[in-house]
Amino acid sequence: MADVQNCFDMVLFGGTGDLVKRKLLPALYNAFVDENINSEARFFCVGRSAMTDQEYSDMAYKFATEAKNTISAESWREFSKHIRYLQMDANNSETFNKLPEVLDKTRTNIFYLSTSPELFKPICSNIAKVGMNHSNSRIVLEKPLGHDLKSSNDINDYVAQYFKEDQIYRIDHYLGKESVQNLMAIRFGNTLFEALWRRQWVSSVQITIAEDLGVGSRGDFYEQTGALRDMLQNHLLQLLCIVAMEPPSSLEADVIRDEKLKVLRSLKPLTEDDVVKNVIKGQYKSGAINGSPVKGYLEEEKVSPNSITETFVAVKAEIQNWRWAEVPFYLRTGKRMQEKVAEIVIQFKDIPVKIFPTAGGNFANRLIIRLQPDETVKLYFLAKQPGDTNRLQPVYLDLNFNEMFQARRTDGYERLLLDVIRGKLTLFVRRDEQIAAWKWVEPILDTWRELKIPPKQYTAGSWGPASSSALLARDGLYWHEEIA
Ligand SMILES: NC(=O)C1=CN([C@@H]2O[C@H](COP(=O)(O)OP(=O)(O)OC[C@H]3O[C@@H](n4cnc5c(N)ncnc54)[C@H](OP(=O)(O)O)[C@@H]3O)[C@@H](O)[C@H]2O)C=CC1
Ligand SMILES: O=C1O[C@H](COP(=O)(O)O)[C@@H](O)[C@H](O)[C@H]1O
């Protein structure tokens, strides 16, 4: 249960945008219905056009119900009593004069910047101009924070003029997912896996975040961003940190963040040759998803017909520390892939001497942690086939958390919003983590730009370009691709 005593006012910049309407308001609605937020809390949603509170609430309701089918009209009416619409422009400081008039400074004042990162600077300085960056205020920054190391540093330096590090909440919504926190619980709440969780016993690790959706209406955003900045620099590297980090001594924010930082700093830097050999850049062409035809990336709205923006990226990474040296970590993410799935595959080493004949492949011991759409853990091992034979075949233990726990599994944003309200920073990214992540991906961006590397095409509805399979095939491996 959240700290419902904590009364707050939350200003959502980007209130008319996709993220607020589809994810943040539905998440706040859930927390409200579950009585996890203070009954006096208020939400101020910002946009540039003129709109009444009622018009805004009606529009938000329409989007929220489309995104989520469990919203009741009656509960929304109650929830919307707490919502106000504010017409403001990030670039017009005059419009910020409204803030001290409407916000109660004795409450926690939360500013959620769900806009493009170019607006972070004017929003911060305009908040400060009207004196709302006080000791009781917090700022939430959406990703991607900047475009590269330099622009990220630039924004962080700027924000740091007005807010202290412990007032800054850098969102990576994957860290708020129940399944990702469960990954920490599996690793650090049990002894079972710890002894095996190292280079002596693990031969490779795969981390996949695949989406079946395309870029939709976000073509202009995606053209500037691409899969590397949108997903790999943040979500995939954060998952890698949780898989690879040393056991933390507590759940305190900086203890966890220190351990993640050590992993990011241990990633083997990529040379230009590594990028050419070990990083795959892909772009979807037309194909079919669930039997329905879909457009290629170049035909999407607001996408240049000659675009070389990647909608898929796969990387072979290495962590240079005592636990993981020489264990390849294969990471991949893409849009318009065969299905929406996020999973981690820990492949254990083969036994040193084989005394049994085996049916069905060499990958005897494998732990597959599926984060979404369903949350499962599958442990594969070999067992004897029944009857007059010594032959072994793969079998698995299968655990489904949705069946195991009847309670509603909260969405990533809901948990993170509640943590901002409670002032808990553990699941937010610290500045030095972000710097380390940008430093590691920067050679990829530089090499792609300098060598003008075009993306390899893949058919929408497939698992990415053939070169992605080849990346693993070179090491005698293949991606785990099992349809739910
Ligand atoms: N959508 C998603 O699924 C995800 C988005 N994000 C990140 O969240 C952020 C927002 O994304 P998204 O909602 O998709 O973006 P949208 O393009 O849908 O929305 C942009 C918002 O910014 C507002 N805006 C633009 N210019 C100004 C201005 N000068 N002053 C005040 N407000 C302005 C727009 O308001 P107006 O009505 O005035 O145009 C609109 O509300 C981005 O950083 C994105 O990377 C992160 C993860 C997922
Ligand atoms: O941050 C982002 O994440 C979503 C995917 O999130 P998920 O929770 O649905 O897995 C992605 O679609 C979007 O492009 C990206 O900005």
From TrEMBL:
It comes from the Bacteria. One of its GO terms (biological process) is pentose-phosphate shunt, oxidative branch. The active site is at residue 235. Keywords: Carbohydrate metabolism, Glucose metabolism, NADP, Oxidoreductase. The keyword Oxidoreductase applies. Its EC number is 1.1.1.49. One of its GO terms (molecular function) is glucose-6-phosphate dehydrogenase activity. SUPFAM superfamilies: Glyceraldehyde-3-phosphate dehydrogenase-like, C-terminal domain, NAD(P)-binding Rossmann-fold domains. GO terms for cellular component: cytosol. Substrate binds at residues 173, 177, 211, 230, 335, 340. InterPro entries: G6P_DH, G6P_DH_AS, G6P_DH_C, G6P_DH_NAD-bd, NAD(P)-bd_dom_sf. Pathway: Carbohydrate degradation; pentose phosphate pathway; D-ribulose 5-phosphate from D-glucose 6-phosphate (oxidative stage): step 1/3. Gene3D superfamilies: Dihydrodipicolinate Reductase, domain 2 (3.30.360.10), NAD(P)-binding Rossmann-like Domain (3.40.50.720). Residues 184-480 form the Glucose-6-phosphate dehydrogenase C-terminal domain. The keyword Oxidoreductase applies. It catalyses: D-glucose 6-phosphate + NADP(+) = 6-phospho-D-glucono-1,5-lactone + NADPH + H(+). Residues 11-182 form the Glucose-6-phosphate dehydrogenase NAD-binding domain. NADP(+) binds at residues 48, 143. Catalyzes the oxidation of glucose 6-phosphate to 6-phosphogluconolactone. Belongs to the glucose-6-phosphate dehydrogenase family. HAMAP family: G6PD (MF_00966). PANTHER family: GLUCOSE-6-PHOSPHATE 1-DEHYDROGENASE, GLUCOSE-6-PHOSPHATE 1-DEHYDROGENASE G6PD. This is Glucose-6-phosphate 1-dehydrogenase. The lineage of its organism: Bacteria, Pseudomonadati, Pseudomonadota, Betaproteobacteria, Neisseriales. The gene is zwf.
